[in-house]
Write a structure and sequence with these properties.
The protein has 69 residues and is an alpha/beta fold. Helix content is 43%, strand content 17%. It contains three helices and three strands. The radius of gyration is 12 Å and the shape is globular. The chain starts with a helix and ends with a helix.
């Protein structure tokens, strides 16, 4: 299996939780479901792609995951 095929398969089932908005946006751009834990209320990166969700604390991440089940 080629690397790109592995990434596409992985992006359908894996999630990325990121502390940095840049990381979350980059993973979203690769097809991953992402959540940005924005603890310090930083402005969103302007990269043309956004994380699928964001919140100020890990409890927000739990809610995000629960809503998707």
């Amino acid at each position: 299996m080629r690397w790109g095929e592995r990434i596409r398969r992985s992006s359908r089932t894996d999630r990325v939780q990121a502390r940095g908005g840049w990381d979350a946006a980059g993973a979203s751009g690769q097809g991953f479901r992402t959540f940005w834990v924005n603890r310090i209320d930083s402005p969103a990166e302007r990269l043309g792609v956004d994380p699928k969700g964001s919140g100020a604390e890990l409890n927000d991440l739990v809610e995000f995951i629960d809503q998707r089940r």
